[in-house]
Structure formats: C-alpha cells, structure tokens
Predict the structure.
Amino acid sequence: MIKIDNGQRTIEISANGEIRHWSYDVLLIKLLAEKLEGEHAMRTKVDNKEVLLPPTDGFLEGFAVALQERGFEGCTIDAAFRVYNIVNAQFRAMYGKLAEQIAEEIAQKPPSLIARLLRKITGA
C-alpha cells in the first residue's frame, strides 16, 4: 500500500518577540521557487548537465515577496533563503519516499500477464 500525506507543512516564525505560524503546500512553494529560478537565470548547463546556481539577491527578494503574497507576513530575504532550503529538502524527502514506496509495491505484485508472456517469448 502506498501512503501519502497532503503535502502541507507549518513553520513557526519568531519575529520581534512574536511567534506566528505559516502553513504552506510543499509542491506549490517548490514550483514557485523553480519558476523564479528560471526568471533569475539560476539554471545553466555545464558539460551538458543542468546545474542550479546559488540563489541571487534578486531571486531571494522576489521569493520573499511571493511568499508574503502566499501568507508569510513580513518575510525577509533571510527567511526566504531558509524557506527555499527547507522546501527543497522536504520535496526531496517526500518524493524520494514516494518513489521507494512505488518500487516496493511493484516488487510485491505478481508478474503481469504481459511480463509473463514476454518472458515466455524471449525465453528470459
């Protein structure tokens, strides 16, 4: 059985002695970051491999504004940098775990009729 959650996360924010919480969807923030990475030319090719350059101040300023528009009140460039790194790590963890679950699910299922026929035809 494959198990998923809704992708919602919450960050506790301390600003000027006040504690607030901001909830967000990991995938939506990841897609927002990727859009801004493209707009700020942070993706380039080196030896025919795509490389992601470190965030620029322009990217972080734009990301901070975009996060504010999505409910992160008073988001600073520093906070945007932290959210960027947190969301990238959360995305990798969530989708890496999902890929593992899918591989396990496939491994547990009996071979399909097509797979059995292919083995019979090829003698494998």
